[in-house]
Specification:
By secondary structure, the protein is of the alpha/beta class. It contains 4 helices and 9 strands. The chain has a 5-stranded mixed beta sheet. Strands 6-7 form a two-stranded parallel sheet. The protein is elongated. The relative contact order is 0.15. The C terminus is likely disordered.
């Protein structure tokens, strides 16, 4: 396995050269980062070059790196039992709304907010590769479409556009694919409220579906379960076994 990864790494470096922004190998997987302006050229090479032959795009997804690695709720003073453990019991429960990261704008603590991640498979050589590209503008994230490289990217890119608001330049039909036609916003962005902006219902008097401001009371629901288990602080393996023996 290690030999195969080393051979793949060497071949990827040979073909892409200085177009690779970052290269990581962890847990038996290789991840490379590319610039948006180099994406189409590099993806075509990854598909066609000998020793690579990544002829299948297995998956494509958007990522919002805003407040990456941070908790959504500050719970230092919260209860250990039940639900609603957030310090502010009535809140939208998302960054940029709770006030933790600012009401109007949410920024990435990595310096770049929106990324697109591609998972590639070579059926011929039985090898995989992960490719990541960051959009240059957080306010209007744009990356090139790879539909002309892999047809399967069509619906994947529509999904990432719908949920994250990432625009894929050159896509033949970039429309929403999961949310409603009149939906406002992008629900997988971290600053999108958990309860949404509007709700819809059928109005029998008007004879049509109507959209109204959401009427759900915002609440933070974070369940916590305490188990007598050696995996948790304060419970040794022996104590956990004694507890299990008592129950049996």
């Amino acid at each position: 396995m290690a030999h195969r990864l080393e051979a793949l790494e060497q071949r990827v470096r040979e073909v892409l050269g200085d177009k690779i922004v970052d290269f990581k190998q962890a847990l038996g997987e290789i991840t490379i980062e590319l610039r948006p302006e180099d994406l189409l050229e590099c993806m075509t090479a990854l598909r066609d070059e000998d020793g690579l032959r990544f002829n299948q795009l297995i998956d494509l997804c958007g990522v919002d790196y805003a407040a990456y690695g941070d908790d959504e709720w500050i719970t230092n003073e919260a209860s250990w039992t039940g639900f609603s453990r957030g310090v502010d019991g009535v809140t939208m429960g998302r960054m940029g709304i709770t006030g933790i990261y600012g009401v109007h704008e949410i920024k990435s603590n990595t310096g770049r907010r929106f990324a697109v991640v591609y998972h590639l498979l070579s059926v011929e050589l039985n090898q995989r590769l992960r490719v990541k590209v960051f959009a240059g503008d957080d306010a209007f994230p744009v990356v090139p479409s790879v539909v002309n490289v892999w047809n399967s990217a069509n619906w994947y890119e529509r999904e990432a556009f719908d949920l994250f608001g990432i625009v894929f330049e050159g896509h033949p039909d970039l429309r929403r694919i999961l949310t409603d036609y009149g939906f406002v916003g992008h629900p997988f962005r971290k600053d999108f409220p958990l309860i949404g902006h509007v709700e819809m219902r059928y109005d029998p008097e008007r004879g049509r579906v109507v959209y109204e401001p959401v009427s759900i009371e915002p609440r933070v629901l974070v369940p916590r379960v305490i188990r007598q288990d050696n995996r948790y602080v304060g419970h040794s393996y022996g104590a956990a076994r004694e507890h299990a023996g008592e129950r049996n």
